[in-house]
């Protein structure tokens, strides 16, 4: 078992297409990874800045594979000595080695005896049949002069987020705390385009600057 501190720093329309080229990521679909599994008192709150949840399938990913929050919200199928479970990444485990996953206590109990504390695991990315559309949340303090945008409830890991600036699109940098940030306010409150690691793209309009409110889009990434 691990214990560790948390470190923090309208109406929509959407189009789904699959014409973009997938961005490079260290964790690739179709690849099985190995490492060690441990557990901690996961609540859903963590470096990905999601809300607390009662879901059993949550976990923290090692710092290397977390990749500046790129894997926040990703679903991983984890196999251990006595079973398997699909977990959603909600946090970062800074002391974990590459390939390691720190699971919630109940999730760990599905794959191993908690008495063991640390067990060998294998895992891979999956694209589950989750309900609902993607959603967007503007960070607390967001205005037309500065804003942070988070994508929520996405079936596949999000590779990029862009905002419309006139007739062009501007890609926003992603912070380790899982928000895409416009430091000068460019594109805040405008159309949003997100691309998953498979190259599928969603474009949403009508997402207003409403901090700490989940605003649904109109579509979801396809299962892969």
TrEMBL record:
Residues 72-122 form the RlpA-like protein double-psi beta-barrel domain. Keywords: Lipoprotein, Signal. Pfam families: DPBB_1. The keyword Signal applies. Residues 1-25 form the signal peptide. CDD domains: DPBB_EXLX1-like. The keyword Iron-sulfur does not apply. PANTHER family: EXPANSIN-LIKE PROTEIN 7, PTHR31836. This is Lipoprotein A-like protein. It comes from Streptomyces phyllanthi.
């Amino acid at each position: 078992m691990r214990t560790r501190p948390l470190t923090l720093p309208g109406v929509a329309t959407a189009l789904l297409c699959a014409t973009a080229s997938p961005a490079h990521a260290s964790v690739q679909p179709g690849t099985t990874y190995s490492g060690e599994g441990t557990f901690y008192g996961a609540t859903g709150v963590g470096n990905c800045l999601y809300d607390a949840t009662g879901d059993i399938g949550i976990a923290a990913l090692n710092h290397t594979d977390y990749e500046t929050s790129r894997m926040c919200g990703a679903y991983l199928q984890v196999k251990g000595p006595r079973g398997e479970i699909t977990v959603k990444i909600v946090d970062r485990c800074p002391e974990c080695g590459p390939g390691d996953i720190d699971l919630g206590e109940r999730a760990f109990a599905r794959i191993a005896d908690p008495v063991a504390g640390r067990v060998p695991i294998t895992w891979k990315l999956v694209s589950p049949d989750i309900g609902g559309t993607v959603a967007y949340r503007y960070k607390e303090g967001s205005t037309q002069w500065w804003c942070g945008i988070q994508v929520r409830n996405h079936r596949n890991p999000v590779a990029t987020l862009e905002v419309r600036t006139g007739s062009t699109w501007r890609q926003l940098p992603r912070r380790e705390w899982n928000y895409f940030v416009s430091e000068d306010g460019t594109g805040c409150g405008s159309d949003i385009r997100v691309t998953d690691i498979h190259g599928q793209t969603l474009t949403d309009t009508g997402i207003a600057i409403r901090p700490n409110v989940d605003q649904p889009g109109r579509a979801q990434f396809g299962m892969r």
